[in-house]
Protein: Serine/threonine protein kinase
Amino acid sequence: MGNANGTYSVGYCYDNGIGVEKDDHNAFIYYQKSAEIGHFEGTFMTGFCYRNGKGIKRDIQKANYWFKKYYEFIIDNEIINDDNDVKKMLDNNKYQLSWIPYKNLKSIEEVGNGGFAKIIKQDLNQK
Structure:
């Protein structure tokens, strides 16, 4: 399996029960395979699964590893520049976007799922 988009899509189908029975473990397997061959959304979802124990035993260290890879991929490939609104904010220095370490987040939960998106809610521990 060498097609990152196809591999990610299989994971997405298992995750959402599209054309197959919903299966969190198989979703995780395909997300991780896609991440290993360079799919940035697969990288995020692998971290998400590890962080939430979805389809795999919860492992915060592995979650942080995959989230860091995701963040590095976005920065290295300048994906953030594809969003004109975000680019304007950065260019105008109105807001500063930074990586928020997982340890600074609390009460992370998936609050919605459907169509092509998941909605995730978390609170930030202010220091």
In short: The two ends are 44 Å apart (CA to CA). The chain has a mean pLDDT of 79.
